[in-house]
Specification:
homodimer; about 220 residues; alpha+beta; Glutathione S-transferase Yfyf (Class Pi), Chain A, domain 2; 2 domains; 4-stranded mixed β-sheet
């Protein structure tokens, strides 16, 4: 597929998953360039990629001559450059709520359980796979407890995190739920999160962005 | 001071520091309510505070009947509700760049070295103060290396992170530099970051937001 939009992605990256959902919700065609995060020492550390993304993380979105990093910043860019359908509400308080929900995942859950942090607790503290699982589930639980409370207690919550239109908070939440299941976490304490995740799963934009649907997913 | 804006803050919290700078840049009066993160088991865990902020983190901003969490979401709210001076550029690509720089700090440095993560590596891996210092400096270095490259290599960088007006990226960077110094990190490899931090330090809005200037700072 030829496109002006190129997404450097890894099938199982939560952050790339977010951007894939946003691109799909906006109905934008894009070319996927796979960056394998593990094989051969990690494609994110290859010089050509580091020149695009000095953080050596995925995703990176290239829009013609513009190179963009950080998934939530990329989603806001897509929302500002392609207004339909909107991924944030129009009122400032609603936007603050959606961004806060997104940032619970994007700041306070996902980065603490990212691949490089797991590698680091292995290297610095000799954490084994069991210890890594405990670490992961601890931080997901901390974040999900807060999100569940915020979602369950607010009249702003609808079919999705904010009203009846999927947006920035949902496209951060769904990959994190996928990740929680991968780490075999019980989600029984988070019924609102599970309900919203299920509602999102019915949408083609979310389904097509799933890790297993990506061209670089293992067969 | 009486005000409709109430900031729940801790003098040494990087995230609260960001919001204080934004409030000062906007010239907004606000009331500080101190949440002591350590004393008596941590004020962030007290039921009255948890009702405002289910994540049990600072800051929280209350604007009349609106309760807002997550510092970067709060700063965007302030920018949307008080347009002068703007904390983000007007073009989408510039906004994406500033948000990405902010999120390097806000997602990929600060949350991994937050108090609760340090407490966790102590509890789960018996990390002592020396180990905690190694952990902190590792993540700050990872993020600062990327930021330094992005800042030094871009024509968009000016006196501040983006042009000659301080904004969202600067108000995330400065508290992180403060934090790096607290952890006795050498900043020799980051001359652009150090230059921008020094330029910000000359501004009253940044100076008045410094931890030592806060009503809850130790004498």
């Amino acid at each position: 597929m030829s496109s002006d939009l190129v997404l450097y992605s890894y099938w199982r990256s939560s952050a790339a998953f977010r951007v894939r959902i946003a691109l799909n919700l906006k109905g934008l065609r894009y070319e996927t360039r796979a960056v394998h995060l593990v094989r051969d020492g990690g494609g994110q550390h290859a010089p050509d990629y580091v020149a695009l993304n000095p953080q050596e993380l995925v995703p990176t979105l290239v829009d013609s001559d513009k190179v963009m990093t950080q998934s939530m910043a990329i989603v806001e860019y897509l929302d500002e450059t392609h207004s339909h359908p909107p991924l944030l509400p129009t009122d400032a308080a609603g936007r603050a709520r959606v961004r806060a929900l997104a940032q619970i995942v994007g700041c306070d859950i996902h980065p603490i359980g990212n691949l490089r942090v797991l590698q680091r607790i292995g290297a610095q503290f000799s954490a084994d796979d069991e210890q890594k699982g405990i670490w992961m589930r601890h931080w997901i639980a901390m974040g999900f407890q807060a999100m569940e409370t915020m979602l369950a207690n607010s009249r702003d919550t609808g079919r999705y995190c904010h009203g009846d239109t999927p947006g920035l908070a949902d496209l951060c939440l769904v990959p994190q739920v996928y990740n929680a299941r991968r780490w075999k976490m019980s989600l029984d304490e988070y019924p609102t999160i599970v309900r919203i995740d299920a509602a999102c799963a019915e949408l083609d934009a979310f389904h097509a962005a799933m890790p297993e649907q990506q061209p670089d997913a293992p067969k």
